[in-house]
Write a structure and sequence with these properties.
4 helices, Ribosomal Protein S5, domain 2, 22% strand, alpha+beta, 130 residues, single chain
């Protein structure tokens, strides 16, 4: 029942996940390493697998990932979006379920830039009248 490889992209903060999904038995490979090796922390493995768990499709696909930029959490969430998008490409029927769980939304929250004359984006230096 050969299906062609479906690819999609997910972003979050500075992280970009490029994903290649094919028929398989549930292997997830990230930058040539295993999911459990790349994300040793359970919580991130769970984040990545959420869209698959929701659709009960954990054992159905092999996923090859190219992850770049950002930190560990941003990468995990970028990957979640990419996987969700790929699952919608594979079968449009998956959309409502994934959307309901919020996996198809690009989380646009990014760090605000630091402004000149201030120590941080919104914090001000101490004001002294004299």
């Amino acid at each position: 029942m050969g299906m062609e490889v479906i690819n999609s992209i997910g972003r979050r903060k500075a992280a970009v996940a490029r994903v290649y999904v094919s028929e398989g038995k549930g292997n997830i490979t990230i930058n040539k390493r295993d999911l459990n090796e790349y994300f040793p922390l359970e919580q991130f493995q769970y984040v990545v697998k959420q869209p698959l768990l929701v659709l009960d499709a954990v054992e159905k696909y092999d996923i090859k990932v190219n992850l770049d930029g950002g930190g560990i959490k941003g990468q995990a969430e970028a990957l979640r979006l990419a996987i969700a998008r790929a699952l919608v490409k594979i079968d449009e029927e998956n959309r409502p379920e994934l959307k309901k769980n919020g996996f198809l939304t690009r989380d646009a929250r990014v760090v605000e830039r630091k402004k000149p004359g201030q120590p941080k984006a919104r914090k001000r230096f101490q004001f002294s009248k004299r």
